[in-house]
Each structure stands twice: as C-alpha cells, then as structure tokens.
Design brief:
2 domains, single chain, four-stranded mixed β-sheet, 4 strands, 375 residues, 72% helix
C-alpha cells in the first residue's frame, strides 16, 4: 500500500448521517471527524462504515464511541459497521477504558430508612469508642514500659512536643484568659450594680475562672490547635508509609509517636491552665479597678478571703484528663488517615470537633461529680 493509499480518508456515505472511513485514520483526521459528527441529530439514524479502515487511532475510536453514547442518550442509535479484527479490538479497548458515570441509588425513606441510619450511627460510634480505647490502652501500656525502662522514653521528642504544644500556646491562652477576665468583670459589674453588690464581682471572677473557664477554654484552644497538629503529623506519616517503615526497622510507633505527644500534653496543660488563671484574674482585676474602683490590694484581699483553694484544685484535676482526651483523639484520628489528601483533611477536622466535644462532655461530668462530693 502506497503512502497515499495508507492515509486516512473521510467520505460521506449514502445516508444523510452516514460516514465512511478508510485507510489509516489517525490523530490528524480527528478535527474533521469531530466537526462532522457534532452536527448529527441524536434521534435520526446514523451509520459509520469502517470496512475500508485498516487502522484507527484511539482518539478516533473515542470520538466515534462518544458520539454513539450521545446519540443513544438522545433516543437514537449510531451503527458502527464493517470493522476488521484490528479495528474492532481498538474499539473494544477504548470502550472498556471509557469512564462509566456513577449512578446514585435513590434514597430510601420512611421508618425503615431512619432506623437504618440510626443503626449505622450507633455502629460508627461504637467503632470510634473501640478505636479510642485501643489507642488509650496503647498509651498506658507504653508509658508503663517507660516507667520500668526509662531509657525507652524518647526525651528529645517529649521536650519538642512540650515546646510545641505548651510554650508556643502561652500567648494565645494568656490573651484569651485576659479578655475573658475583662468580660466577666464588666458584665458582672453591670448585673450586680443595681443591687449594690459590686464588691462580689471579685468572687464571681475568681470562682468562674479558677473552677471552670480557665481550664475549659484553655483545653478548647489546645484541642483546636494541638489535636489537629497531631492528626496532620501522624496522618502525613501514614500516607507516606513512614509508620510501616518504622515497624520494618523495629521501631515501635506507639513508643515513638504516641507516648511523647500525649505525655507532653499531660505535662503542659496544667501549666497552661495556671497561666490562663493568672491572666484571667489579672484582666478581671484590671477591669474591676477601672470600672468599680476596686484597688488591686482590695481585689487580692477579697480574692484570698472569698475564694477557697478547692476551686483551683477542681480546675487542676480536670487538666490531665482533658490532656489525655485531646491527645488520644488526635493520635487515633491520625492513625485512621487513608491514602488521600482528602482523607487527611477530613480526619483533621473530625479530630478537632471530637476533641472539643469530648472536653465539654468531660467538664460537664466533672461538674456533676464535684457537686455530688461537695467540692
């Protein structure tokens, strides 16, 4: 076959929507083929004759099959006839490689569908609780091993995470608590002034901050800041298969990744809570001085006389529990990250929400418990 005979030829067939391809139809012929096929009506009969085609390019096959799908969707039909074995194999290969649009099943309605959704939520919650318990148990077991064998504790990693989760969080925690103290003093003064009880704003500030708001808001900030950091770091390592590499090298991921992070939170969250308490009391005292004329000396006197040390004790007891909740949730979410960036983002957001929710629920349970025991 000469070069002229081998070149692709595109001819109009006998019908109005008929096309005949012959020779070797390649990528250079694609624009003309697409321009002719684009004008065909979907509901009218159409035919493409490939009896003279010795070979077609995959791009041409894709154009022919796409036109056939378009016409079939419109209620018509495109017949591709006369293809030899080689051309037929190319058409079949391209057909198998073409994407199939996903069809969503119609959503079920009624009581059965609602019951199914509730069941799925219950199962998902149980699985999440089981995963949380597993990571918590892993942390406790590895921490106990570190107590027995202190050399296994990764001190460098612990110091690094203490700095990252604790020292670097001091400015935002102090600013937050300072502003909360100002708000409490201002709003408390506005509510107590009609009763002539402005002096009791000191007790309002001290009890609210030392017992509840100082450690609670600190834990919420740490949950948003540190839980997401733990999930992103561990999840990125899991995506890059670094955790599998650690196991291959004989390094325990729980000992290297989980223990230093959670232990750093357990050590630093009480300190951050103390910082928040001091900043909140300072902000409340400043506003009480400016708004009510309560001098700093009088504020300190009222604070010492009207506030029991048990309020500070209650707040500090909560801190390690909040720290364990935040750390375990962040690490567990990181271990559940899949192979995609979308999974990493989804689990990071889920870790922050779950950590904040867990902290608030734990604080509510602590409040009920301490009320029952008289603290």
């Amino acid at each position: 076959m000469s070069k002229a005979q081998a070149a692709g030829r595109i001819e109009t067939g006998a019908g109005e929507q008929s096309l005949s391809l012959s020779g070797e139809v390649g990528l250079a012929d694609l624009p003309e083929i697409e321009s002719r096929l684009s004008g065909w009506h979907a509901r009218a009969p159409a035919e493409i004759d490939l009896s003279g085609a010795g070979r077609i390019d995959t791009s041409v096959a894709w154009a022919l099959l796409s036109t056939a799908d378009r016409m079939e969707d419109g209620g018509g039909q495109l017949a591709i006839v006369g293809a030899n074995d080689s051309v037929a194999r190319i058409l079949e290969t391209v057909r198998q490689a073409m994407p199939v649009p996903a069809t969503e099943a119609p959503g079920r309605r009624g009581f059965a569908a609602w019951l199914e959704r509730v069941g799925r939520e219950v199962v998902d919650t149980a699985q999440a609780a089981a995963a949380f318990t597993g990571v918590l148990g892993l942390f406790v077991a590895r921490l106990a091993r570190c107590v027995i064998r202190p050399r296994e504790l990764r001190l460098t990693a612990l110091v690094h995470h203490c700095q990252d989760a604790g020292v670097r969080a001091v400015p935002i925690v102090a600013l937050m608590a300072f502003l909360i103290g100002i708000v409490l003093a201002f709003q408390g003064a506005a509510q107590l002034r009609p009763f002539g009880a402005e002096v009791f704003v000191v007790e309002l500030i001290s009890i609210s901050i030392l017992r509840e708001l100082g450690i609670l808001l600190t834990a919420i900030i740490v949950a948003g800041r540190t839980a997401s950091s733990y999930t992103a770091a561990i999840g990125s390592m899991k995506m890059r298969q670094e955790i599998d590499a650690m196991r291959t090298l004989g390094i325990d991921p729980g000992q290297a990744l989980i223990v230093p992070r959670i232990l750093a939170l357990v050590l630093m969250l009480p300190i951050l809570g103390l910082v928040a308490n001091l900043a909140g009391l300072f902000g409340g005292g400043l506003m009480a001085w400016l708004e009510l004329g309560i001098s700093p000396a009088m504020f300190v006197t009222r604070l010492a006389e009207g506030t029991d040390v048990s309020n500070l004790t209650v707040g500090m007891i909560k801190a390690p529990v909040f720290a364990v909740l935040i750390g375990v949730i962040g690490c567990e979410a990181g271990l559940r990250v899949g192979d995609t960036a979308e999974s990493l983002g989804r689990m990071t957001s889920a870790a922050v929400v779950a950590a904040i929710f867990a902290v608030i629920v734990a604080d509510a349970l602590f409040s009920i418990f301490f009320e029952q025991v008289g603290m």
